[in-house]
Design goal:
249 residues; alpha/beta; six-stranded mixed β-sheet; four-stranded antiparallel β-sheet; 8 helices; globular; binds adenosine-5'-diphosphate; binds magnesium ion; Sugar ABC transporter ATP-binding protein
Amino acid sequence: MEGKVVLKVEGLNKSFGPTKAVVDMHLEIHPGEIHGLIGENGSGKSTVTSMIAGCLKPDSGVMIMNGKRHEPKSMLEGRASGICMLLQEKGTINHLTISENIYLGEENQFSKGGIVNRRRMNQAARKVLESIDLGHVEPSHLIDELSFEDRKLVEAGMAMKEDPKILIVDETTTALSQKGREVLYRIMSQMKEKEKSVIFISHDLDELKQVCDRVTVMRDGAYITTLSGEEITVDAMRHHMIGRDFSDG
Ligand code: ADP
Ligand code: MG
């Protein structure tokens, strides 16, 4: 896989009014890697990944995916090109059942003559639930009945169902228990096994050290460095994030 790149970001800029959120950012994502993205609060991580996912339009700069210009105009277009994003906030819809959430907009595949076969839809949803260790959960129940954590996992299952090329995990683990985190780590390693990639945003440096193949550090909207393998230590990450040796005081 040496030298191969699934996504390349070059000279990316994004401002919100006077705030320069992302400045001349570059980033390369390899197939089959878990790529950490770190930086202090407000350093531009979510803005970069939102542009990659199609939720935000860059002011300038280029994104290349598998050798072609990547210019998604919406999250839907981002998804169509193989990018799925898990957000920190709630990504599922209240007052719908779990299976309705999982197959929202895709009910057609279970319908005949305009009538959705709920039994088949629930059966398919059960498979998704099993993949995230929620096989005991009844897909015909309202999503509202699930805990925040289980809803996050459902969202992860929904993303995996799309067979994404790149999965973006933006601080999802922060709100999860160890058990929930482990389901997410398993999903991330499944991505790797399939030679797919994960962009993983987290504040937990120990967690990053354990799961990431490479880690890119941002500061003030800009690219600082990319660490790989043995270079990924808690001290090195912290040092690059704050821009000086933290032991200097
Ligand atoms: P991070 O994810 O690293 O915490 P963000 O990308 O969310 O950082 O934010 C980068 C900067 O852009 C911050 O100064 C933030 O306040 C600002 N920002 C982000 N989104 C918006 C927005 N929608 N409107 C105005 N400012 C924003
Ligand atoms: Mg963020």
